[in-house]
């Protein structure tokens, strides 16, 4: 069932920013944003991405550089402003079914999966392993009952960003993902 007919979900969609720019069709879904964002958060944490919550549906993310690699951007990003929360909840077992944003309890340790090992590409040409800073946000598409996972590079190597972008989009698989309670 599209989220257009569900009242608590409609409020969540109405709070999303309008998408601006190009659209990657693999990041578009008609699923409920209350269920999509915890799924995306889990993927970020499992790939070793540090996240900082900006809003209910907006994160600022950092993938740290490989050990021994020196970046010009290292000194400008403070590790203290980001968190990889520990815990172990399954994304399908979120409290989203009650209509509340399950992401609202970011400060508690029971909410999030255990942070994974930082993910790097196998080949230097594919991913040099530089630190990258990027944003991950759910946005709404005007005129459609769809939302879009908007991932934007803020700072860092373009090849490293492309590797992380492709990995997140592939693991999220929003085109084919069916979340509980939305069949």
From TrEMBL:
Region described as Disordered: spans on this chain: 70-124
PROSITE patterns from the UniProt entry: KA1 (PS50032)
Acidic residues bias (residue ranges): 100-109
Domain KA1: 125-174
Low complexity bias (residue ranges): 72-84
Entries under Pfam families matching the protein: KA1
Protein name: Predicted protein
Organism from which the protein derives: Laccaria bicolor (strain S238N-H82 / ATCC MYA-4686)
Lineage of the organism: Eukaryota, Fungi, Dikarya, Basidiomycota, Agaricomycotina
